[in-house]
UniProtKB/TrEMBL annotation:
PROSITE patterns: HTH_MERR_1, HTH_MERR_2. Keywords: Activator, Coiled coil, DNA-binding, Transcription, Transcription regulation. Signal peptide: none annotated. The keyword Nucleotide-binding does not apply. It comes from the Bacteria. It comes from Streptomyces coelicoflavus. Residues 1-71 form the HTH merR-type domain. SMART domains: HTH_MERR. InterPro entries: DNA-bd_dom_put_sf, MerR-type_HTH_dom, MerR_fam, TipA-like_antibiotic-bd, TipAS_dom. The keyword Nucleus does not apply. Pfam families: MerR_1, TipAS. The lineage of its organism: Bacteria, Bacillati, Actinomycetota, Actinomycetes, Kitasatosporales. This is MerR family transcriptional regulator. Gene3D superfamilies: 1.10.1660.10, Antibiotic binding domain of TipA-like multidrug resistance regulators. GO terms for molecular function: DNA binding; DNA-binding transcription factor activity.
Length: 253
C-alpha cells in the first residue's frame, strides 16, 4: 500500500512543500511514483519520516539527520534507543522549565509581580514571596486564598504602595491609642480594628468577624507576626488581637 504526498502530509502534520524539499535533497525520496509521476510513499517511507521528525524535534539539522539515518552500520533499534534517551532528557528539562513558569505564574497571580527594587521600595525588608509555599499549604484550598489571587492579580506597584500606606496608617493609629492609655475595648481601638477588617475585605478577600478574630489570634500565636507587628511598639500584636476580638463582640448579636 502506498500514500500520496497529501495523505502523508496529513498523517505527519507537515506541509506538502516540506515533503517536496525532503525529496529534493535526498532525505526522504518516495519509493514509488504514480503513472502520472506523482510521489507515492510506502510504509517504510513513513517509518523514515517518523525518524526524521523525531530528530528534527530534537533540534538536529537536516544534514546531520541524513548522516544518522544513512549510516549503514546503524541499527534501527539503536536509533530508537538514542531518540528515547534524547527525548527523555528533553522532557526532564521541559518539566523543570514548566515548574519554573508555574512558580512565576503563581507569584504573579498573587500580585507579587514587582521587581526586587520595587518590592524593597514597597515592603522594605519584608519579602512577600518568602512565605508563598507556606501560604499555599495552609490556605491554598480556601475561598479567601482564591479571592485574594483574583483581586491582586492585576495590582500594580502603586496599588501595593497604597495598601502598604493604609497599613502603616493603621499601625500609627493603634500605637497612638496604646500610648494614650486607651484600652483595647475602647471605641477608638475597636474602630481601628473595624477599619483593619474592612481593608482586608477591600484589598484581599471577604473577612468576616470570625475570620478576623482568627487573624488576631495568629498575630500573637505566630511569633513571626508578633515580631513584625511589635517592631512598631512592644505589645502591639496583643493589643490588636484584643481590639479585633472586642470589635467582633460589638458586632455580634
Amino acid at each position: 500500500m502506498s500514500y500520496s504526498v497529501g495523505q502523508v502530509a496529513g498523517f505527519a502534520g507537515v506541509t506538502v512543500r516540506t515533503l517536496h524539499h525532503y525529496d529534493d535533497i535526498g532525505l526522504l525520496v518516495p519509493s514509488e511514483r504514480s503513472h502520472a509521476g506523482h510521489r507515492r510513499y510506502s510504509d517504510a517511507d513513513l517509518d523514515r519520516l517518523q525518524q526524521i521528525l523525531f530528530y528534527r524535534e530534537l533540534g538536529f539539522p537536516l544534514d546531520e539527520v541524513a548522516a544518522l539515518l544513512d549510516d549503514p552500520a546503524a541499527d534501527p533499534r539503536a536509533h530508537l534507543r538514542r531518540q528515547h534517551e534524547l527525548l527523555s532528557a528533553r522532557i526532564e528539562k521541559l518539566k523543570k522549565m514548566a515548574a519554573a513558569v508555574e512558580q512565576a505564574m503563581e507569584a504573579r497571580s498573587m500580585g507579587i509581580n514587582l521587581t526586587p527594587e520595587e518590592k524593597f521600595e514597597v515592603f522594605g525588608d519584608f519579602d512577600p514571596d518568602q512565605y508563598e509555599e507556606e501560604v499555599q499549604e495552609r490556605w491554598g484550598d480556601t475561598d479567601a486564598y482564591r479571592q485574594s489571587k483574583e483581586k491582586t492579580a492585576s495590582y500594580t506597584k502603586e496599588d501595593w504602595q497604597r495598601i502598604q500606606d493604609e497599613a502603616d496608617e493603621l499601625t500609627r493609629r493603634f500605637v497612638a491609642l496604646m500610648e494614650a492609655g486607651e484600652p483595647a475595648d475602647s471605641e477608638g481601638a475597636m474602630d481601628a480594628a473595624e477599619d483593619h477588617r474592612q481593608g482586608i475585605a477591600r484589598n484581599h478577600y471577604d473577612c468576616g468577624y470570625e475570620m478576623h478574630t482568627c487573624l488576631g489570634d495568629m498575630y500573637v500565636s505566630d511569633e513571626r507576626f508578633t515580631r513584625n507587628i511589635d517592631a512598631a511598639k512592644p505589645g502591639l500584636a496583643a493589643y490588636m488581637r484584643d481590639a479585633i476580638l472586642a470589635n467582633a463582640v460589638r458586632h455580634t448579636p
